[in-house]
Design goal:
By secondary structure, this protein is of the alpha+beta class. It contains 2 helices and 3 strands.
Amino acid sequence: MASITLQACPRCNGAVLDYARSAEDGPMCITCGWRDNRVSASVQAEVDEHIGDEFVEHVYTHHCAGRGKPPLSGWEREKRRRLRAGTGERQLNTA
């Protein structure tokens, strides 16, 4: 049996749909997709331990900085070549 609770979503104040089948199919907001996420105590303890630390301990950085725009694709080069050539070459053969 499904139940709908109006104005129960903490994020958008929308309607929350609850199928009450299992913990995986818990309450979900119809409007924004919010779900009631329950976190285990061990995971919450690990998160609390890392609060305030750097996000990434070692950061991979490239050795060279980027040098301008990336090269054009074949189609982009062809379009620019056609634009430079002009429209004079595009005559239809009516014969």
